[in-house]
## 1
Amino acid sequence: MNTLAYIIYFAITFFITVYAGFIFYKNGRIYLLALLRNDATSTDAINRLLLLGYYLLNLGYVALMIKAWKTVDSFTELVSSIAQMTSTIMLSLAIVHFCNMTIIYLLSKRRKQHLVHHTN
């Protein structure tokens, strides 16, 4: 039963990770462009590196979570364990995303304060 749970878990978390990463990559470019003063070359390079780091971090974490998996003996346990493990990954994705957004916000705010200070 555990093998089936692993396969379903990997399929779900792989889809969520890749889909969310694509959305972050596509929509995050606007924030990076503003932060990097419309330098498209640097923005695109950094955005690709962030996407790669995001994939490596999350897919690595998905693989590590297998270690914490308990033995599954019934269909009910299968569904429950997949839900628990998948929700753990989704929660961690949300936390990492909001940490990144906070860092981008703080850097943007700092840059604006620096610009205002130098123009006065």
## 2
Amino acid sequence: MLVLSRRAGEQLHIGDDVVITILETSKDGGIRVGIDAPRHLRVLRGELVEQVSHANTQAASADEAALVAALATTPREG
């Protein structure tokens, strides 16, 4: 992981297409960041990625439980 110190107005360039600009910093430690990136690149907040991953895991578990229950109640032929 690269760790840098930046001030408001300063930028980071990632590759040829992504520019991250520090817009402002606050006394409580927060920062506002602007990101210029091509539309085909997905830019997501970390907490959103975690929420979606958790929801997908829960949905997969629920689907598995429903499948097991359905198989258990289906009469077998033979």
